[in-house]
Amino acid sequence: MDPLDLASDVVGGWLQLPGAATAELMGSAGFGFMCLDQQHGLIGDDAVLPMMQALAATGTPAIVRVPANEHAAIGRALDRGAAGVIVPLVGNAEEAAHAVAACHHPPRGSRSYGPTRLAWAPLPAAPLSIVMIETLEAVERAPAIAAVDGLDAVFVGPSDLSLSAGLPFSAQLDDATFADLLRRVVKSCRAHGLPAGIYCASPAHVHRFRELGFTFFALMSEAALLRAAAVQKLAESR
User: Fold this and answer.
1) Of 6, 38, 51, 216, whose CA is between 20 and 30 Å from 188?
2) Residue 40 is a catalytic residue
């Protein structure tokens, strides 16, 4: 599997529901990567490994959004074979450095070594350390966050950022104030050669955020896609 280049205008997918079959189905669609969401999704630790194995069968890199900026959670995701982790609610450079350290074994970091999947599977030698910017405070500190040594990318949570700014979710598509917040994050990332990513609730959001300078995108989850299709087909049947 080729290394994942998050600076190459890549569109990824998002998984919230546990299950290897669903992961394989989504992976077969051709996304550039697939994120397994352990923060707001329903994916427990026991589901992560078979879902990663299913994604590997499709050649799709698996990234895990861990539930918190904790060494144990990050280590478990990487031991199971994640190409990288997305760490939520990072508010400053110190928290970003903590996340980076948790991704790497000594002397580079502080990750504990355990010969789990590392003992038999061809896993990435250097997992991606990706931190989320989701608050106004984090936007203010984006230059310092982006400057953290060893950080591989920044990922914006637009819904939480909207809430933090006192804006409706609809602001993500056309609000000038929200767009300015995103440009500030992108500017900080560019200054340090980092890819800037963002969650997208629709293809329209992908196009909007691409215009603002983002380089990788996670499209709406399989749960959202399934419900939207079900609602549409039901309405068409009445």
Assistant:
1) 38
2) yes
